Amino acid sequence: MCLSAVALVAGSAAVAGSDPIGVTVLPRPDGPHRVGETVVHLVDSAREDPFHPDRQRELMVSVFYPAEAVEGHPRAHYLSTALIPDMEERFGLEIPGLLTNSYTGAPALAGGPYPVILYSPGAGDTRIYGTGLAEDLASRGYVVVTVDPTYESTVEFPGGRVERPAPLPGGFDRDIRKKFIAARLLDIRFVLDSLARIAGGDNPDAGHRALPAGLDHALDLERVGMVGHSSGGYTAVESLHDDRRIDAAVDLDGQIGVDEEFGRAAAEGVDRPVLVMTSGQIEEVGDANPSLAAFWTNATGWKRQLTLRDSAHYDYTDFPALVPAIARPAVARYIGPIAADRATSLVRTYVAAMFDKFLRDRTDTPLDRQPAEPEIVVTR
Predict the structure, then answer these.
(1) Is 270:294 a contact under the CB 8 Å cutoff?
(2) Which of 55-59, 146-150, 278-282 has the lowest mean pLDDT?
């Protein structure tokens, strides 16, 4: 992706007290709980990295969770200083210091365990773009784990080591997409295995850095969902197909696996719930996602497709919140005319509704009635 140069302007409330210097641009979470965050470095000693066979597969994940007391814990930065140059180059944006709504290392809220949700980003994207959604779900009483696709996106590891995407001599073709998805699917399995270790009182962090107090008791691995954007949505539905530990999936403007070589979810269907949310941008050009038609024919579980009017592909990420109103015309290819705060609110509402319905067995969610919002269209 290449955007024209845009100055990212701080347009949010000032940060008070002992918080680090910076501005907050992400909308506040809608749930009742404060949010804690921790970062975990995972190494799969049983697997060679498909892009660097001389190395073991390494992952960085962020864990967002309902927090007990946040006093004395700093607000987490949206981007580290090591990643800012890469993001500025990728998007053509000048980025100031940005803070999230989460508190680093705060103890987990007692009263759990809480359902677990995995998040996978779009092709070539970082897990950071799902921060706002992860914070919102955590504030509603979920533990959310965002997973970076190492060597597909730029990833920062402990000690300031930054691993950039693997070279693509043939470009982003079918073979490399297949390789990326295959790696992601194994990554998700490994992350779930690692979460089971945490729930059992172990610490899988490669550097044995301390985990937040109570995180082990916060994880309910009997109730697991997954959400992803674009290729991450593909990964979410395919992981649901492959791994019985996952109970429900949300696909945000992504395709679904269409054949045995590249993914089997559409051809074979799944027997557990799937919500697909597509952008108005996709709908305007017709059925640009034929895999959805096959999936609807073969899937036997609950399924629904919603379209968000006047939206574009990146309205399902944090990106609209990072772009000031004056600069929106320059990025119209990536975000639609729908107001950023409105898109954020609707995406958060329906993603939360999906997991409330199928991980918490609630029957009074927005998915249990016709949409009241004019921007939401029931497509299937």
Answers:
(1) no
(2) 278-282
pTM to 2 decimals? 0.90
* CA of residue 353 relative to chain centroid, distance: 16
CB 148 within 8 A of CB 155: yes
Q: Are 267 and 241 in contact (CB under 8 A)?
A: no
Say how many C-beta atoms besides its own lie within 10 A of residue 288's C-beta.
Answer: 12
Q: Which of 155, 152, 175 is nearest to 230 (CA)?
A: 152
Sign of the C-alpha dihedral, residues 109, 39, 64, 57?
A: negative
42 with 59: CB under 8 angstroms?
A: yes
Ranges of H-type helices in the chain: 84-91, 131-139, 174-199, 215-218, 231-242, 265-268, 280-284, 290-298, 319-322, 340-359
Q: What is the pLDDT of residue 23?
A: 66
Neighbours of 194 (CB within 10 A): 21
Distance CA 320, CA 327 (A): 10
Span 184-197, average pLDDT: 98
Q: How many residues does the chain have?
A: 380
| DSSP state letters, 301-355 | S-EEEEEETT--GGGGSSHHHHS-GGGGGGGTTTS-SS-HHHHHHHHHHHHHHHH
- What is d(CA 126, CA 150) in angstroms, rounded to the nearest whole number? 9
